[in-house]
Amino acid sequence: MMKIAVIGATGRAGSAIVAEALARGHQVVAVVRNAKKAQQMFANQVTIRQTDALAVSQADFVGCDVIVDAFATRQEATQHLDLAARLVGLYRNSESPRLAFILGASSLRQADGSLVLADVLAKNAGAAWVATPIQQAHEYTFLTWTENVNWVAVSPQFNFVPGPKTRYRVGKDEIMTNAAGQSTVTTGNLAAALIAEFETPHFVRQRFTVVDDE
Amino acid sequence: MMKIAVIGATGRAGSAIVAEALARGHQVVAVVRNAKKAQQMFANQVTIRQTDALAVSQADFVGCDVIVDAFATRQEATQHLDLAARLVGLYRNSESPRLAFILGASSLRQADGSLVLADVLAKNAGAAWVATPIQQAHEYTFLTWTENVNWVAVSPQFNFVPGPKTRYRVGKDEIMTNAAGQSTVTTGNLAAALIAEFETPHFVRQRFTVVDDE
Predict the structure, then answer these.
(1) In this complex, is the C-beta atom of B141 within 8 Å of any C-beta atom belonging to chain A?
(2) Where does the pLDDT of residue A69 fall: very low under 50, low under 70, confident under 90, or very high at 90 and above?
(3) DSSP labels for B168-192?
(4) Which one, of A44, A41, A102, lies nearest residue A73 by Cα?
(5) What is the DSSP letter of B109?
(6) Which residues of A touch B137 (CB under 8 A)?
(7) Res. B2 pLDDT band, cuts 50 70 90
(8) What is the number of H-type helices and E-type strands within chain B?
(9) What is the ipTM of this complex?
(10) Mutual angle of helices B78-90 and A78-90, in 10-degree steps
(11) Is B73 within 8 Å of chain A by CB?
(12) Within an 8 Å CB–CB cutoff, is residue A76 touching chain B?
């Protein structure tokens, strides 16, 4: 049994990760902006810490084996990078807690070797929301610079959809497809692959990706 | 007259920047780990704030027009990047204060287009100190991602030596040489170029470099 903190626990990825962690018998600390919302979602199954994600400190994570950064915002894309930098800064030269980051798919590579991000930018030039995939790609680059922290990161597929755990496959840095040829993963499958990685680490200081099998 | 905070004010670059700022009539806040040392160096010419650089907050910089990150350490090279990320995170979406970063020369380009860092790594493979030029190159990359903060950065030359302000030239992203063909700049000349940049900005969200003229 591990003690797993989840920043952004009430969000799309975060809530699936909390559910999977609890289902596998782990203890969960939900680090959230809105404690009332977390209480409604999780009742007494988790410990709730209400704080601004960007103000977290070591005091928020006492005794935790893993901290999952499932923070997401559509307002200020640079906050994804800022939170990653803050967490890394808190745990330089520590093997524990392990830090886990939910990235986007933008930093995955396509079959022709180009980044998914290049495709996204080509097709959506000028759209405000592309700031998020841009910053999440920076976040991944920042992590690749980080040798003195025990981190792992996971990218979903191009489509990251709410849905149950079914069956999944994992990969490394390339976009993947399901049996129907679609790059898609459910929140349940991503959560299951991530908790499995905590239980048996394979991707130490690496990023991996998850795809629906069917 | 500007109010200029200098993190690492008692260090090699920092102390030259404090001296130049005072000589040009600016007000200085010395942000230092060791207040006693700062008092011995600067007497009552500056306001002293004693704090761990990596714990600075907006409260340390009230009313400041510019914050200079002249922090340097030989122990934990990743702290250079962590402090830059912290300062950037504090002032996202602000035009003021301006943030100024003293980088190394490693992120400058040589005549053949390669980074100085490549040369440093080739000649000093395995040396512990190369962590600093590596992290300072990352710090520059991090800044190039930063579009919503009013930053400027300055790289010295390959040789960055204690010495007075004499005459200098500024450049952009390439290593430069003095009249004798040496890539060298004094702390006094770097400080003079930096304070001049604060007084009349030319390099908004850019890095520049300074070389001794003679």
Answers:
(1) yes
(2) very high
(3) EEEESSB----TTS--EEEHHHHHH
(4) A102
(5) B
(6) none
(7) very high
(8) 6, 10
(9) 0.88
(10) 140
(11) no
(12) yes
